[in-house]
Amino acid sequence: MEDGGREPENDIENGDNGMAEEDSSGRCLDLTSFQLHDLAEVEIPEGLVELDLTANRLSKLDPRIGMLARLQKFSLRQNLFDDEGVEPLCGWSTISGLQELVLRDNKLTKIPDVSIFKSLLLFDVSFNEISSLCGLSKVSIHLKELYVSKNGVTKVEELEHLQELRILELGSNRLRVMENLQTLINLEELWLGRNRIKVVNLCGLKCIRKISLQSNRLTSTLGFQACLALEELYLSHNGISKLEGLSSLENLRVLDVSSNKLSAISDIEKLTRLEDLWLNDNQIASLEGIDLAVAGSREKLTTIYLEHNPCV
Fold it and tell me: Cβ–Cβ contacts within 10 Å for residue 70, how many?
């Protein structure tokens, strides 16, 4: 499991052959990896539903995009847009029905004003230079997925209205405290890898299925007791010396506590659905007792990693 965070499932990887792809209906236009500086020579069909401009050299928005009344998915990933460059989006009422907006990997220093997009379901501003979540209060209440990884964010804020949010990605920032999450009652995935968090505080959330707190400053596994729906828990590269508070997580399938300071395995006997247990790079001196620790999950368990422990 790579430290850090999660990428949107619909991201398009780099390395395309530079051929424009347009479906026969004229609904989708993919201009990935063309290294375009502008769209002057590109025909933009009026009926577009999806427009992907990933991996180009764009810094300004073509005004014709603002006339695409049917546009639902729009990606500007990996371009050269700064705050001023994306500002025209704020006033393009014709495309206000947009459902997915990807501004990942640009030069933004703040959350752009996307209040005009009342139906926005996915918003991605990862890999920018954003230091604050100020501005998120204007994002649609219907948002389902929010990605703000690899920025310089120091505080979790302005999320209170996002009660329909399912995925929150804040990995690779400068967060020290888990806070202001209590209204995200439908949150299923929380990605906070590569931050500076010392204490787990899930603010009463109970629908969480996946949590990543890899590469933080945790010393304890306490704090997950009420997350009864939890299926995947990633806690590698911390300072955890003891497994505790995990016995109530009966739906847990994946537990990653590799690269910590564990000297023994405990509190997982009741995890009957456990499939993957990652314990590599710890301080476990003996295999004695491991059979008892995993007795409850013997029928489901398929993988145990123990490399780089003294017992090996």
Answer: 14
The token pair at 299 is 């029928």
Residue intervals in the chain for CATH 3.80.10.10 = 15-130, 218-312
Model confidence pLDDT, tens digit, residues 115-170: 999 999 999 999 999 999 999 999 999 999 999 999 999 999 999 999 999 999 99
Residues 6+ apart with CB under 8 A from 9: none
- The span from the CA of 47 to the CA of 143, in Å, is 24
Distance CA 208, CA 186 (A): 8
- What's the pLDDT score for residue 63? 97
CA distance 172 to 46: 38
- 53: nearest Cα among 106, 130, 118, 119: 106
The answer, as to whether pTM is greater than 0.85, is yes
Q: Residue 17 — pLDDT band, cuts 50, 70, 90?
A: very low
Q: Is the dihedral of CA 65, 70, 76, 81 positive or negative?
A: positive
Encoded amino acid at 36, one letter:
L
First to last CA, the chain: 21
Q: What is the largest CA-CA distance in the chain?
A: 69
The pLDDT of residue 26:
78
At residue 116, what is the residue type? I
In CATH, what is the architecture of 15-130? Alpha-Beta Horseshoe (3.80)
CATH no. of 218-312:
3.80.10.10
DSSP reduced 3-state for 93: helix
Task: Read off the tokens for 274.
Answer: 């456990």
Pairing, β 145-147 against β 167-169: parallel
Q: Average pLDDT in the 265-291 region? A: 95
Q: Map tokens 């577009």 to a residue.
A: 48
